[in-house]
Amino acid sequence: MADSTLWLHLMGIVLSLGASVLLIVGIYPAAQKIEDAEQRFQMLASILKYFHPLYLFGICLVFMSGAIGLTDLKIGLGTGYYEKISGPLMIKFGFTMMIFLIASMQCFGQGLKVTRMANGIIEADRATKDKYINKIKRATMINIVLIAITIYYGLQLGHAVAAN
Description:
Blueprint: H1 3-31, H2 37-77, H3 81-118, H4 126-163
């Protein structure tokens, strides 16, 4: 992978994984200190409005730079590239697909509903609001694990390339 492509790949990982960890270990615990439930919900909704686009940008940056790097890798390995790297590559593709599906559900489904509830477009009681905030938290935690696993298989892919 070219230096600039690798740099973009790493920046995307830092952005998506870093933002996710910040949300789970920083923002959610800080929000719990706000006693008024509606004020807490409004604060989380306003943060998610900016968090989700940055999070998706990071994931897309990783995906696109990885696709560019894979094209370079296929050229470098020649016609037998698939036999040489297919194991970790297919696993990484599978986890990447799960990350995209969960992030899409989180940002376009749950996040949009939270934003609309916060703006009064969708009427919701406290239990419904809390349910959606908790769904976003769970989706973020799952994606943190999936991103970490994908990083592991990306490193395995790098070792497979280095061996060839």
